[in-house]
DNA sequence: AAACACGGCAACCGCTACCCT
DNA sequence: CAGGGTAGCGGTTGCCGTGTT
């Protein structure tokens, strides 16, 4: 399948890889991520295994839409902590840093992440962006 | 019905901090 | 105390699904 120059797989994880990783974590526990690919028999780098576990496979992860309470908390924490996603995620049970970051980038940073691709859709001074920002701050 | 544009999510990359020798 | 290696974090990118024209 696809692989990088050093022979490690990249891209989307398969169900088989998920199973192997989950089994490995069950058996050995979290940590020693550089050893996980060897233990699990995965052709992935340790960083990738950690990311997959943290963002997707952890049993405590809550998936789906953010509740209004969670959004409210997210906004307050972001105001307080800035882009410290891991800290914010730590205060939101069941949410991961990547989750929180993606949600923020999608719903509150409006033009920032997509501007590179679709500059024509809105400018830096776009009223959409400012209204989003106002919305995100006014709730505080 | 097909093509195009946009939104959302999963994953990768590079940098920094921390720990061990 | 210094150096090397590993873990963790944040930013960015690419892909896929959905909506619109």
Automatic annotation (TrEMBL):
GO terms for molecular function: DNA binding. Keywords: Activator, DNA-binding, Nucleus, Repeat, Transcription, Transcription regulation. One of its GO terms (cellular component) is nucleus. Pfam families: Myb_DNA-binding. It is found in: Nucleus. CDD domains: SANT. It comes from the Eukaryota. Residues 5-57, 58-108 form the Myb-like domain. One of its GO terms (biological process) is regulation of primary metabolic process. Coiled coil: none annotated. Residues 5-61, 62-112 form the HTH myb-type domain. InterPro entries: Homeodomain-like_sf, Myb_dom, Myb_TF_plants, SANT/Myb. This is Uncharacterized protein. It comes from Arabidopsis lyrata subsp. lyrata. The lineage of its organism: Eukaryota, Viridiplantae, Streptophyta, Embryophyta, Tracheophyta.
């Amino acid at each position: 399948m696809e692989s990088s120059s050093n022979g490690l797989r990249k891209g989307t994880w398969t169900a088989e890889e998920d199973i192997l990783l989950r089994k490995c974590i069950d058996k050995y526990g979290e940590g020693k991520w550089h050893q996980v690919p060897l233990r699990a028999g995965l052709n992935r780098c340790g960083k990738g295994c950690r990311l997959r576990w943290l963002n997707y496979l952890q049993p405590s992860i809550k998936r789906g839409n953010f509740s209004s309470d969670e959004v409210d908390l997210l906004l307050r924490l972001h105001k307080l902590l800035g882009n410290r996603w891991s800290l914010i995620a730590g205060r939101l049970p069941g949410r991961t840093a990547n989750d929180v970051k993606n949600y923020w980038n999608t719903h509150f940073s409006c033009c920032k992440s997509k501007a590179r691709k679709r500059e024509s859709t809105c400018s830096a001074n776009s009223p959409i962006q400012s209204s989003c920002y106002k919305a995100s701050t006014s709730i505080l």
